[in-house]
Predict the 3D structure of the following.
Amino acid sequence: MNQNLDIALLLEGIPHAAMILDDTFCIVKMNRLMEAITGYTREDVTGIHGELVVRSNTGNSKGQLYVNVLRTGNAVSVAGDLINRFRRKIPIQYTVSALITIDGARCGLLVVAEDTSATVAENKKGLLYSDTTEMIGYSPKMQEVFGLVPLMAQTDASVMITGETGTGKDEVAEIIHKTSARARYPFVKVNCGALPSGLLESELFGHVKGAFTGATRNKPGMFELANKGTLFLTEIGDMPLPLQVKLLSVLDDSEFQPVGGDQKKEVDVRIIAATHRPLRAQIKKQQFREDLFYRLHVLYLHLPPLRERGEDIRYLVDHFFEKFNRSLRKSIVGFTPEAMETLLQYHYPGNIRELKNIIEFAVNMCKNKDISKENLPSYIFEPQVVEKKSWENNRELKEAEPSSQQADNRDTVDQGSWEDIERSMIIEKLKEFQGNRTKSAEALGWGRMKLWRKMKHYKLI
Amino acid sequence: MDKLLIPVQGDFVAQRFDLATEIIIAEFDKSGQMAGEPKTIIMERASDDELCQMIVDLNITDVICGGIEEQHYNFLTWKKVTVYDSIIANWRIAMDKAVSGALESGAILVIENGARLDT
């Protein structure tokens, strides 16, 4: 190594996780980003084989990549992932290049692990995705949405996303964040409808020790945790009025006061809000502040319901079928024409979430080559005319904001849909087998791990 | 500790739970002595789900591994399996440490090339 260079300083100048290995592939130096991505401090891992610390899946488990680069001198860059000390799997672009001295000797390696969570590939028509989130949409309405998302990612303005439940509001918000300049900073999601006013205030702005009974320590709020990143406020229409005032003040001044605190804290947070409620109607009823509405409503994105997306249903059916067929290790070939017709005709009040659950149900239930009508959940054959009619006839819906009564109707329909049915199925089987999870899982056609995940999802454990 | 499982790669604890295909299983009697020689199992393919299933099926009580994803870690601990994860070590040394009760998750014990040993 050239002793005239301050290698540590050089590494800090690289905008990705980076480390220098010696010719036996042991760590000589690493930068702070490498410490952050792997979870190890440089003091702990200096002198350790680089791959034991990075733990990538790039075919380098025995250091073959390192050996080849050092032998040939040719740099290599491969995509993969790593699992860090905090049990997180992170997608990376792993680049290994040889370090060569002035006299031509190869004395070590420079290893760069670029966190590609933020990278979004938009190279296929009809697909919009980041590494963790994927959206499919070939219909004109979704193509319009896909065209707007990259534009929204380029600015820091607040975004309001509307759409019925299950249309993918959360996914769009995450994609906007991950394709924005804030991608390397946190994306924090807060459900404004899930907590009572007092708790939500503490959740958003944090509290200081002694602010209220039980506040035994200082707790940072979501605003603080999302600093430099994006705060996604879902179900903003359910936020209590007093909190709306405080939120508006934070948005205007970029600073806030934690609950019980006397010092203001500055934050730099981008806000994305989402709701299925008709905010204009709520403003008229004085349930939502008009000034906050206009503050949040700088950029606007409406996600169409699945029934308005035409041919997308077929693409989504195929996508989820392939996904579950593979993950459940089934060898189902496809759908019978009748089953496919039923799926294409159904109006999906729960939108994509419901479609996904229906396909998962069908793949689980199918014991033959093709999924037939008998393998589909029985509730989709029940008449749904009332809800469909009321939506179709509603002018406000066409203007992207369903009435609160309709939203309530829809909630009722959703609550009786697949998730509830699946939950009841699990409970029934557990009762039938006196709580024996192995037998229950077998009866449901699942592995025990899947049953455990589902029970956790439905809060049955 | 009754039955210990370690995904390995050569002499080391395998870097990743989900990529391991070679498994060592060691059984211990009540005095903490190893009962017989550790057995080696070669898995048909690397799979974290299948490895979790194997751990449950074989009534494994302790696991020593490298990197493991949160959901599999949670599953195993929920099944009352003690998991020592993020271990960077020669597997025999990690096993001895675990038997003596001195192993902790995140431990860095032996590195072949770097010749590093923290005791």
The two ends of chain A are 56 Å apart (CA to CA). The first strand of chain A starts at residue 17 and ends at 22. The CA atoms of residues 257 and 334 of chain A lie 57 Å apart. Confidence is low (pLDDT under 50) at residues 120-125, 386-416 of chain A.
